Amino acid sequence: MFARVSTFKETEDSLAESVRRLPAALKKASAMSGFKGVYQLVDRSSGKSMTITLWETEEAMRESEEAANQLRADEASATGANIVSVERYEVATSELH
Q1: Do 49 and 41 touch, CB atoms closer than 8 A?
Q2: For 3-45, how does the pLDDT look when each residue is reduced to its tens digit (9 = 90+)?
Q3: Alpha-carbon span 79 to 17, nearest angstrom
Q4: Contacts with 38 (C-beta within 8 Å, 6 or more apart), sequence order
Q5: Backbone CA torsion sign across 75, 80, 81, 83
Q6: What is the value of pTM for the model shown?
Q7: Residues sharing a CB contact under 8 Å with residue 36, sequence separation 6 or more, in sequence order
Q8: Degrees to nearest 5, angle at CA 96 with 54 and 50
């Protein structure tokens, strides 16, 4: 499995709007081939947030780049968030209880 980690800097208002808008963005992301899931992490005190999307294969993650870039830019524009970074990782270990 592979992960794309998008980091944002947000105001309190844009952070609340980002959280509210996630289900609609998730619907678009889940239509992408190889999409496995998402985590949205927020630090309300600092305004920092991270969205971690999970992909079945590295190829699926790479093939989704253009659509993901557009979705990320659209969401940031709609909420007033600033995109700080986008990084890609292999998920070496995963366990949920």
Answers
A1: yes
A2: 999 999 998 888 888 888 888 888 889 999 999 999 999 999 9
A3: 6
A4: 22, 26, 29, 51, 52, 53, 54
A5: positive
A6: 0.90
A7: 1, 54, 55, 56
A8: 45
Structure tokens at 38: 């998402």
Contact present, 27 and 70 (Cβ < 8 Å): no
Which amino acid belongs to residue 53? Answer: T
95 φ/ψ angles, rounded to the nearest 5 degrees: -155, 125
- Give the gyration radius of the chain's Cα atoms: 13
Residues contacting residue 37 through CB under 8 Å, at least 6 positions apart: 53, 54
